[in-house]
């Protein structure tokens, strides 16, 4: 859409419809109160707020009736709370147009229309509240009339939730904690207007976007030059009430001046969110002391139940012309980093300097004389020097996080850890950022990330939204990343410490679909997400933006200033839907876990070696993943480490596609799996070269296994056909035929057989169109179908709307 038309479009969406229907149908039990009568008794408020107040009164009356019938109204209590909050927020926004205009102005996508958007926002929020209440009245009316039966909400026990082996447990059941990242800086943790069941109530040491300490983050400024700790700053940590469970951050962006005076190189090789050289000995010493002290002080505290976040979105892009260069990321490397690289090369080449010189086309006299230009030229990708530096850059960051975790565990052995890994470090083709996603997921005790999706087009000029041609939202960015992480670490809790499902620097939609919100949170949780902290909650209880977003915004990170505009802070329907879907997921937590914890019969081979060497590895890998995703079974991945460390009987077949470069250890792992009886499908090009592009003499030999080698012209359709044939015995008993009006599938489902012979089935439609579905059993038996979330029956042939979610019990007849 042309940005000049945005204000007009929103204004059209905000038109007040004068025809007001009664709050429930003629079958309902709600009192009949007309808008006209109610409005006459309310003065000083807008017509939309008057309408909302009438509907609130109606809903609360219905809630009283429901309580009399022992019907759970937790969902309606949240709806009422958000309605009241956003009516208050709308009034604040209306009274402070300059502030809201400025907020829109900080986001370049909205800046040209900031005046109109600010003027429209209050009534937009009010109208969304009215729509929310209409929906809530309708649903509760259905339950009061006996037309549906909802399962009572299983609320998070914010005081007693515990981290189990691979899930959080609350009141004896799996639970999925939820909250918002960077919540209203400056508000006390005990403020129930901010910490409650509606917004979430995890206590945490949050984000610091100032160059010095702010909020409850653990940072470099805790340690003084004399070796003592700043007790005032330490109180930000020690004063956190030991009431609610939560998580803590190691915020490693800043470095004290006294460190820089002692170590002039300490900032050489810094990155966007890591303000110092991770190879610097003094920086390591400083952080070792901070980690050990804070680990001791927080040992056994509830605020660490969801773990320590060891870093915020770490990356060290050392590639020329990368966007991070202007933020001084890896503009150079320190003498410490260079010398460590030299030692790494000497080990990698087993002391054979001639081999290095041959590979690099160099003539270094010794490993101590090796030099390299950083940032490295991307034109060198595919050459040995590119591979060596990129692989080392990954290994050195893994070494840093190993050090950090070891320091923590030296004083607090039971402390859980995770790292906020950006999904782009895996999902996008670039591998110059120094992050080995698999290695870090293996290292930490929990899996950590800030996975995101795109609910509408990318708002940045020149950025692709190609996925929108086929699907309602970018489901693949969520699914493929989660399936990889769950394959690497199937027995670890998965924490999204900054979920960008609602907005990000690359996308936002001021009128985000609630169906999208429900679908994306459901999909992520189904595929492994155990806890999430959404980006972001920035309203103080009076409706004003939180402290950091007031005044003139000048952050080192450009993302925060424009983040408020178009976010869920302006969208009552979105914020309410997040909690509503989390209520439903927690009410069916046992079923979700059961659907999640299934074998992944088909595995795609992943090689970091090939990913480093070519520029389209993930693009091509995603095409195969997408082709296989809509067949009713969980997808998975294998790597060298997975083959060596996990039970190979937990999958049937490995597909090796577009993996031309693999090192000898990766090749040997595949051969070992095959020799022991495994099945491998491999394309003609894969496994033909080592990490340096040198031809491999060895070829896979079937041994006790089954080896299917594809012809050079085999396409993805052929690979899919062969792969599905190999896992046919483990395909789901429940089969769904789909007619969605397009040539590609958009409906995905998961099935688990129950002890009584029935099947638990989850279905999601991520397409643009309503899908006509025909559910059958592979054995041909007829079925009876019950929608578990409503208690209603379904015919075997039914429709599922775009972004629809179903949880069914399917019983053979």
Outline the structure in words.
The chain is of the alpha/beta class and 813 residues long. It folds into 4 domains: 142 residues; 347 residues, Alpha-Beta Barrel (TIM Barrel), CATH 3.20.20.80; 128 residues, Rossmann fold (3-Layer(aba) Sandwich); 81 residues, Immunoglobulin-like (Sandwich). It contains 23 helices and 25 strands. Strands 5, 6, 7, 8 and 9 form a 5-stranded parallel β-sheet that branches. The longest helix is centred in the first third of the chain and has 31 residues. The N terminus is likely disordered. InterPro entries: Class_I_gatase-like, GH, Glyco_hydro_42_N. This is Glycoside hydrolase family 42. Keywords: Glycosidase, Hydrolase, Signal. One of its GO terms (molecular function) is hydrolase activity.
Q: Would you report the number of β strands?
A: 25
The CATH superfamily name of the largest domain is Glycosidases
- The first-level CATH class of the largest domain is given as Alpha Beta
> Any guess at the CATH architecture of the largest domain?
Alpha-Beta Barrel
Give unreliable regions as ranges: 1-42, 207-216
The proportion of residues forming helix, as a percent range, comes to 25-40%
Provide the structure class: alpha/beta
Rounded to an integer in angstroms, the radius of gyration calculated over CA atoms is: 28 Å
Largest sheet: 5 strands, parallel
Q: Please work out how many helical segments DSSP would assign.
A: 23
Bulk shape: globular
Output the CATH topology of the largest domain.
Answer: TIM Barrel
**Overall average pLDDT:** 92
Strand % is 5-15%
Question: How many domains in all?
Answer: 4
From the N-terminal CA to the C-terminal CA, the straight-line distance is: 51 Å
């Amino acid at each position: 859409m042309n940005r000049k038309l945005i204000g007009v479009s929103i204004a059209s969406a905000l038109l007040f419809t004068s025809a007001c229907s009664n709050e429930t149908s003629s079958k309902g039990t709600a009192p009949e109160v007309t808008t006209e009568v109610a409005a006459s008794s309310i003065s000083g408020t807008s017509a939309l707020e008057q309408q909302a107040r009438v509907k609130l009164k109606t809903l609360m009356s219905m809630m009283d009736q429901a309580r009399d019938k022992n019907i759970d109204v937790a969902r309606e209590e949240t709806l009422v709370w958000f309605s009241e909050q956003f009516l208050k927020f709308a009034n604040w926004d209306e009274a402070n147009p300059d502030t809201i205009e400025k907020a829109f102005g900080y986001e370049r996508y909205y800046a040209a229309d900031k005046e109109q958007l600010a003027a429209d926002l209050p009534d937009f929020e009010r109208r969304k509240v009215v729509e929310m209440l209409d929906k809530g009245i309708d649903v509760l009316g259905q339950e009061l009339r006996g037309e549906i039966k909802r399962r009572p909400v299983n609320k998070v026990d914010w005081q007693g939730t515990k981290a189990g082996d691979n899930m959080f447990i609350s009141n004896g059941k799996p639970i999925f904690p939820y909250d918002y990242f960077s919540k209203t800086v400056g508000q006390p943790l005990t403020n129930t207007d901010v910490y409650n069941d509606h917004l979430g109530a995890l206590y945490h040491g949050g984000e610091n976007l100032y160059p010095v300490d702010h909020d409850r983050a653990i940072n470099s400024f805790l340690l003084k030059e004399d070796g003592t700790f700043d007790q005032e700053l330490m109180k930000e940590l020690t004063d956190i009430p030991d009431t609610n469970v939560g998580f803590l951050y190691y915020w490693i962006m800043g470095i004290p001046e006294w460190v820089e005076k002692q170590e002039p190189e300490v900032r050489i090789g810094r990155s966007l969110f890591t303000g110092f050289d991770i190879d610097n000995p003094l920086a390591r010493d400083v952080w070792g002391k901070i980690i050990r002290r804070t680990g001791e002080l927080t040992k056994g505290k509830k605020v660490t139940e969801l773990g320590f976040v060891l870093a915020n979105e770490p990356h060290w892009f050392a590639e020329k012309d990368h966007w991070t260069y202007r933020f001084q990321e890896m503009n150079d490397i320190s003498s410490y980093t260079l010398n460590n690289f030299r030692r790494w090369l000497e080990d990698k080449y087993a002391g054979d300097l001639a081999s290095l010189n041959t590979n690099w086309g160099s003539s270094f006299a010794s490993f101590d004389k090796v030099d390299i230009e950083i940032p490295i030229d991307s034109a060198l990708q595919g050459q040995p020097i590119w591979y060596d530096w990129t692989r080392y850059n990954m290994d050195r960051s893994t070494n840093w996080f190993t050090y950090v975790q070891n320091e923590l565990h030296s004083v607090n052995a039971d402390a859980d850890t995770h790292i906020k890994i950006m999904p782009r470090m895996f999902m996008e083709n670039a591998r110059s950022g120094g992050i080995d996603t698999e290695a870090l997921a293996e290292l930490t005790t929990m899996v950590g990330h800030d996975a995101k999706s795109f609910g509408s087009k990318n708002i940045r000029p020149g950025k692709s939204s190609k996925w929108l041609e086929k699907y309602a939202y970018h489901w693949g960015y969520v699914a493929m990343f989660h399936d990889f992480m769950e394959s690497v670490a199937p027995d670890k809790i998965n924490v999204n410490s900054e979920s960008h499902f609602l907005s990000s620097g690359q996308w936002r939609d001021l009128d985000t679909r609630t169906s999208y919100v429900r679908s994306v949170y459901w999909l992520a949780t189904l595929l492994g997400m155990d806890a999430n902290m959404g980006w972001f909650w920035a309203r103080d209880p009076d409706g004003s933006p939180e402290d950091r977003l007031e005044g003139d915004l000048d952050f080192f990170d450009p993302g925060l200033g424009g983040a408020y505009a178009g976010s869920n802070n302006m969208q009552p329907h979105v914020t309410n839907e997040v909690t509503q879907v989390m209520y439903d997921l927690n009410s069916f937590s046992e079923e979700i876990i059961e659907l999640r914890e299934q074998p992944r019969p088909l595995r795609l081979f992943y090689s970091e070696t090939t990913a480093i060497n070519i520029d389209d590895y993930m693009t091509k890998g995603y095409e195969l993943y997408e082709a296989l995703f809509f067949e009713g079974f969980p997808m998975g991945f294998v790597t060298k480490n997975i083959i060596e460390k996990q039970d190979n009987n937990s999958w049937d077949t490995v597909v090796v596609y577009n993996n031309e470069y693999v090192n000898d250890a990766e090749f040997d792992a595949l051969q070992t799996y095959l020799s022991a009886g495994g099945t491998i499908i491999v394309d003609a090009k894969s496994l033909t070269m080592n990490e340096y592009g040198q031809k491999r003499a060895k070829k896979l030999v079937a041994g006790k296994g089954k080896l299917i080698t594809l012809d050079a012209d085999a396409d993805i359709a052929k690979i899919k056909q062969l792969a599905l044939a190999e896992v046919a015995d483990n395909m789901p008993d429940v089969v769904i035929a789909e007619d969605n009006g397009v040539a590609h599938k958009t409906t995905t489902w998961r099935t688990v057989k129950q002890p009584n012979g029935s099947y638990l089935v989850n279905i999601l439609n991520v397409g643009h169109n309503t899908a006509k579905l025909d559910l059958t059993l592979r054995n041909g038996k007829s079925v009876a179908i019950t929608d578990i979330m409503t208690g209603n029956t379904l015919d075997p042939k039914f429709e599922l709307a775009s972004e629809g979610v179903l949880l069914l019990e399917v019983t053979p007849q």
